[in-house]
Amino acid sequence: MTDNDGEADLEARLVEQERFEPPAGFVEQANVADESIYEEFEENWPHAWTRAADMLDWDSEYSQVLDDSEGPFYEWFADGTLNASYNCVDRHVENGDKNRAAIQWEGEYGETRTYTYQDLYREVNEFAAALRDLGVEEDDVVTLYMPMVPELPIAMLACARIGAPHSVVFAGFSADALATRMNAADSRYLITCDGYYRRGDPLDHLQKANDGLGGVDHGVDATVVVDRLGEDGFGHDLKGNQHDWDALLAEHTGARVDPVERSAEDMLFLMYTSGTTGQPKGVKHTTGGYLAYTTWTSHAVLDLEPEDTYWCSADIGWITGHSYIVYGPLSLGTTTVMYEGTPDFPERDRLWELVEKYAVDVFYTAPTAIRAFMKWGSEFPERHDLSSLRLLGTVGEPINPRAWKWYYKHIGDEACPIVDTWWQTETGGMMVTTLPGINTMKPGSAGPPLPGIDARVVDASGEEVDAGRAGYLTVDRPWPGMLRTLYQNDERFVNEYWQEYSDPDADEWVYFPEDGAKIDEDGYITILGRVDDVINVSGHRLGTMEIESAIVGVEGVAEAAVVGGDHEVTGEAVYAYVILEDGYEGTDEMQDAIIEGVNEAIGPIAKPEKVIFTPELPKTRSGKIMRRLLEEIANGEELGDTTTLRNPEIVEDIQVKVSD
Ligand code: WTA
C-alpha cells in the first residue's frame, strides 16, 4: 500500500507498535473476561458446548451434545427441538422487550424504518401465514433474491418459523446465477423486490429476477415481490403467480402461526458459495448448532448485549449478514442496524453519520471498506462523534497492519478493541479471533482459535509447522456451527473438505478450509489467503472456474484463464487472460463484450479489472495452465521457476501486455 493521508496521520508510536492490550474500560464490562474459558472448553469438550446451546430456548431438551458416530457427518444437540424464529423474535416479546428496536433500517436517501420486536413478531407471523397459503410446506426451499430491505430478514424468519429452509441469493448476482441456484436447490418459491437504490439511481431488480425465473427448469409455484421503489418503479406488471408483498400482508393482518418444532439437525438454510469447480456449493446449515454457535460468538466475540445498537455493514446476501446481522444479534435481542446504500453516497462520511445518528456500540465491517476509508482520509470520520463505539470488528480477508491501525485510531479512538475474525460460509460463525476482553491484539494476525476450536497450521503431510512457517489451516475437531453437508451431495462434501488431512480408516476427520496460514509462538494465526482457485474480491468469494466459463461463453473466445492480482482497495482483483478464436481481434469492443459476459453470468463484482489478450497461455508440459505464473505477472512480481513450461517464450509477451 502506498502512503496516503490516513497513514500520514498515524503517529510513529502506532506504526511501531505490534501488540495492543484490550482497553481496561472495555475489559471491565466484557461479556467474557475470564481466560479460564479456554481451559474449560479443553477439559470439558464437547460438553462445554452446552454453554452455547443454553443460550437458546429449546422446545425439548437434547440428551446428547455431539454425535460423532458417523464422521464427518457430525450431529449436534441432535434430539433437541427448537424454532429459530421463536428464538430470534417471540422470546424477546415474551420477556418484556417487545418495545425494543429489533431492526433499525436506513434507506440510501435517509428514509428510516424501525421495527420493534413486537413489529417484527407481527410481520414475521403475517408473512409466515402468507407463505403457507401460497403452498409452502415444511422443508420446501424458498429462494430470497433481495437487496438490503427489512423484508429480507422478515422473510428469512418467516421461513424459519414454518420450517422452510431459505436460500438467499445476493441481489448483486445476475439472473443466470439466480437460475443456477434455484435449479440446484429445486426451489419452487421466490421472494424478490421491484428494485432498490444505488448511488442515487433506482435499479430494476425485478427484470433480473424475471429473467432468472425464465432459466428455472422446474415449475415455480409462486413469487412474492416487495414494492421498494414506489413511484420510481419500472412499471412491471405482476404476472399470474406473482404476488405483491403488501397485499399479501394485508390479507393476513393479525394472523399468527405457531413456530414449527424443528429438530436441531433440520436444515435452517442453504447458502451457495464458490469453490474450485464451476458449480456453486450449496452449504447446508442446521437449526440447533448454527443458531447456538452464532448466538454464542455474537455474545463472546462481538460482546453484544440486548441494550446495544449493533451494525454489521455486510450484505445479508452473504454468510456474514446471515450470522451477524440476522441470527446472532436477533437471537440475543439486540438492535441490529441495516443500511441499504453504499458508504460513499451521498458523501464519504455516510457510515460515520449513521454511527453517530444511531449511537452504534459495536461495528463490524470488511478490510476492503477500511482500506477505502483510509484512502479517502480521516477528515470524513472526524466530522462525526463516534464516541458511542465500544468494539470494532473485521471479517472476510486478511487485514494489513496499517489498515488495522488506521481503524483503531481513526474510528475507535484507541479505546475500542478490534476483533479480526477468520471464518467461512462453511463454518457458520467465527473460528479464529481474539476474545476482546481477554487477549492481546496483534495487528495482521487474527489471533488464537476460539475456545473449543481446534484450528492448527500444518504442512502438506499434516504435521504441525513450527512457529513462523507457512502452512495450511486445518480444524481437527467438529464444532456446532459447521456445515453438515453440501446440499444433496454428500460425496462432494467429503471430497471438498475432508479429503486432504483425514484418515478415514482410523475414523479421524480433519476439516480443510483451503486457506494458507502461519502461526506464531503465542499460537496466534495469521491467514495468508486461499490456496484453491478462489479469488477474494472485496471479501467476496469468486470461483475462477465460474468466471472462466462466463468468458468462454462470449462469442469469439477460445480459452480463458482467470487469476487474482493484488489490489489496493479490493484486496484482489480479477485478471483475465484470454485467447481468441481465429478471425477475432482483441479490440475494445471485444474487451467490453467479455466484461459484460461476466456481468451477465455472475454479476458486477466479478467483472475483470484487466483483460489481457494473448495468443497462448503459459502451460506445463502436461498441458496445465500455470496459474502461479499468471498471478506473478499480474502483480508485476519477479517470476518463479519457468523451466517446466512448454512455451516459455510467451511469458515475456504477456508481461509486456499487462504492464501496458
Ligand atoms: C477469507 C466470509 C483473513 C478466507 C465470512 C476464507 C479471511 C474466506 C478472514 C471465506 C480473516 C475470512 N482474515 N481471511 N479475518 N475472514 N477470510 O465464505 O480466505 O465468504 O476462507 O466467508 O474468506 O469467505 P466466505
TrEMBL record:
Record's keyword terms, sorted: ATP-binding, Ligase, Nucleotide-binding
Pfam family, one: AMP-binding_C
Domain AMP-dependent synthetase/ligase: 96-479
GO annotation terms (biological process): acetyl-CoA biosynthetic process from acetate; carbon fixation by 3-hydroxypropionate cycle
Residues covered by the AMP-binding enzyme C-terminal domain: 546-624
Domain of life: Archaea
MF GO annotations: 3-hydroxypropionyl-CoA synthetase activity; acetate-CoA ligase activity; AMP binding; ATP binding
Catalytic class of the enzyme: ligase
EC number(s) from the headed UniProt entry: 6.2.1.1
Protein name, as recorded: Acetate--CoA ligase
Organism: Halobellus clavatus
Species classification: Archaea, Methanobacteriati, Methanobacteriota, Stenosarchaea group, Halobacteria
